[in-house]
Amino acid sequence: MLPALTACDDFLDKDPSKNSNKTITEVSQLDALLASYSSFYSEPNYTFLASDDYGLTPKIQSHRTGSTSIDDLNDFTWATNNKRTGRLLWDGEYGKIFRANLVLANIDNVSGGEAEKANLKAEAHLVRAYSLFQLAVCHCLYPSADNANELGLPLRATTSFEEPIARQNLGATFAFIENDLQEALKISKPFLTDAGKMQNWRGTTVSVRAFAARFYLYLCDYTNAAKYAGEVLAEYSTLKDFNDPTEMYYSTNDDTFTINAGTPEEEQIVCKYPYTKLQFYGTTGFTELLEWKELLYARTMSYASWWYIPSQDLLATFARDIKDGNPDNDLRYRYFVIEDFGLRSCERTQEGRSDGYCQFYYDNLISGPTVAEMMLIKAECLARGGNAGDAIKTLNDLRKARIATEAYADLPIGSSADALKKVLDERRREMPLTIRWYDLKRYAWNDDPSDDVTIRRQFYPYTASSVLMNDALVEHVLEPKSRRYALPIPEVDILRSDNVLVQNNY
To answer: Which residues pair with 478 in a beta bridge?
Structure first.
């Protein structure tokens, strides 16, 4: 049973104002600000639309019964404007940063135990670092030495409405994030309670080190990435075994669609879902997410349009390194790649059939660090360091919990280059859509050209209001190190700032 975390809800639900005069006197009040998991778990992060894991095609567009959001198409084609006004990563993450800053502004002046206050202070630094990192991966160029003076983020360190909101440079942005991370690493709160329950919605020794492993991998600091991943796995290494029928099974809430109705080709199509289908909207609340036994920090990618379309390039990876090249032997494909999901949004004909990717209902995918991610970070660092044997052993330990038992075989040990390719393929299968933009950026700017990716897309031209499906297709290309790897910040926020905020340079 999850703890009641409703304290301060009325306070959190009200927009702050200059005239607010809420007295905070006890550490429990500040703890409640960070304990409200429903205020932190969701990330409306649209970077997946820009990645090669997303597979909108002209065919899908032609047979879609509703319209495709022009905002989505702007991200899909790496356009240099952002017209979104709702469910913004920018608003959401800066809202979390405000809560963290509220804790930091008051922590030294409230009553409570010193150890509790120290942990809460460190946790606030974790929240701020994590949110700034999410924003930087989305909206900024990669933090290479050559990019240090490029545009970074507004660095909000207080709750003052008078604090400057101009964007700092990228070097200062990542220095700020790393400083927050170092403060967050002072957390001394165990991941498991005395009763053996996970505390994955809070800052713990495990969650902060999991984020540190992700942060340093992005910077291609493989020494620190391996160090922190190893520390996580030394404290907690439980995997969810997809072969265990008590862990993974199909939901009883199937959808049935009739295609080609009234014709000799009429057919009933049953669309099956993983057991998490009704999780966020059923009676169980957030229990499935917070009890997902390998989740180390509870965060999910949220997508308002509810259809994560997996690309053919992504789906092809499931046929590699698997018995008979049958992707269904990979249980991540079996449960999460939903055949015929597109019939929810497309015409009910053979042409309307297409896949979807689904974990928690339709709009939420796990984006927070997991045990599996830590194993993959460890394996990647080993492979890049020339230790193919231990890299593949780590990979095999993960795959035993992901590949159907009857189809499982250990991957053979070959060269370090081959091991690295296998690790990167496994990353893509394990964390599709959610982490791919992060990976594409670091691949482009690291010193290894073998993992660079050029994305090419053919799609219809479109205007601010419609897709021109009678016109010839247009090719869109994203090269490694393109300036369009910094997705534009929301134009609505530029207007709100009276143009103090400036758009990325393209």
So the answer is: 455
